[in-house]
Amino acid sequence: MIKIIMHGCNGKMGQVISEIVRNDEELTIVAGIDPYTMRENEYPVFNDINKCDIIADVIIDFATATAVDKLLAYAKERKIPVVLCTTGLSEEQLKTVEETSKEVAILKSANMSVGVNLLFKLVQEATKMLAKDYDIEIIDRHHNQKVDAPSGTALAFADKINEVLDNEYEYVYDRSAERKKRSKKEIGFSAVRGGSIVGDHDIIFAGLDEVIEFHHSAYSKAVFAKGAVTAAKFLAGKPAGRYDMSDVIKF
Ligand SMILES: NC(=O)C1=CN([C@@H]2O[C@H](COP(=O)(O)OP(=O)(O)OC[C@H]3O[C@@H](n4cnc5c(N)ncnc54)[C@H](OP(=O)(O)O)[C@@H]3O)[C@@H](O)[C@H]2O)C=CC1
Ligand SMILES: O=C(O)C1=N[C@H](C(=O)O)C[C@H](O)C1
């Protein structure tokens, strides 16, 4: 039985993961971490990760960016692998992820769905063929409770695209103060926030007189939760290192 610590257990994703794990014979949540401890959970919940001395094989994280520093320090000290799903991390935090992964296994992915991870590959292929003549823009649409913009997935798409463009493209997040045309080597971001949209992403290649678009819609949070649970099974017992969903989902 793989023992999990659920970081952010009483948030929206934490609750969906708890439900999936409840019906999975290979997994059990042994502890949860969340500032909100009044909810009835079937496992003990700690309002501070450092209060949790329960032994686990892997941590699944869906919390908030400000909680990630403590999480990484805890994982490093106790050598517990982390499936790191929280988005909106700062440059400094991304460096800490890299440093920490030298001591403990970390699988970081801004999007745990099968569809987005397949699209990462398709969009990279399209970029090789289209980037010379087409402008690249990314739109993400999410619910009104989301705190980070652009989404982690939108940034991950841009990083995948830029990887095949020798990282020469600049990211443009806001054109409202600009009085100039877009340059060729840029990737523009737009973020829509409203209602209960689970998570939509459009990758737009706009050329002369035609537009090619790649679109992904998540219709429920379960697509992310299932991916995180599969990733946790993969990561438990793995040696230190940086992993991502391409290690888990093979196309
Ligand atoms: N990689 C992926 O596939 C996906 C990533 N995400 C990302 O996961 C994160 C969580 O999403 P979601 O569940 O919708 O958000 P929620 O706000 O619903 O849940 C986050 C939970 O984390 C709790 N939290 C706050 N501080 C801490 C802390 N120090 N330690 C532990 N828990 C803490 C929050 O408590 P409180 O409300 O009291 O602050 C809340 O219960 C976001 O960054 C989101 O972008 C989401 C979906 C998919
Ligand atoms: O906050 C969310 O809900 C989501 N966040 C992730 C992101 O920032 O890309 C993934 C997913 O789209 C849902």
Can you give a write-up of this model?
With 251 residues, the chain is an alpha/beta fold. The protein folds into two domains: 2-112 and 222-249, NAD(P)-binding Rossmann-like Domain (Rossmann fold, 3-Layer(aba) Sandwich), CATH 3.40.50; 114-218, 2-Layer Sandwich (Dihydrodipicolinate Reductase, domain 2), CATH 3.30.360.10. The chain contains seven helices and twelve strands. The protein has helices spanning 12-22, 68-78, 91-100, 114-130, 152-163, 222-235, 245-248, and strands spanning 2-7, 27-33, 45-46, 58-61, 82-84, 105-108, 135-142, 170-172, 186-193, 199-207, 210-218, 241-243. Strand 4, helix 2 and strand 5 (82-84) form a beta-alpha-beta unit. The longest helix has 17 residues, at 114-130. NADPH dihydro-nicotinamide-adenine-dinucleotide phosphate (NDP) binds next to helix 1.
Q: Could you name the key traits of this structure?
A:
251 residues, alpha/beta, Rossmann fold, Dihydrodipicolinate Reductase, domain 2, 7-stranded parallel sheet, 5-stranded mixed sheet, 26% strand, binds NADPH dihydro-nicotinamide-adenine-dinucleotide phosphate, binds ligand LZUJQKHR
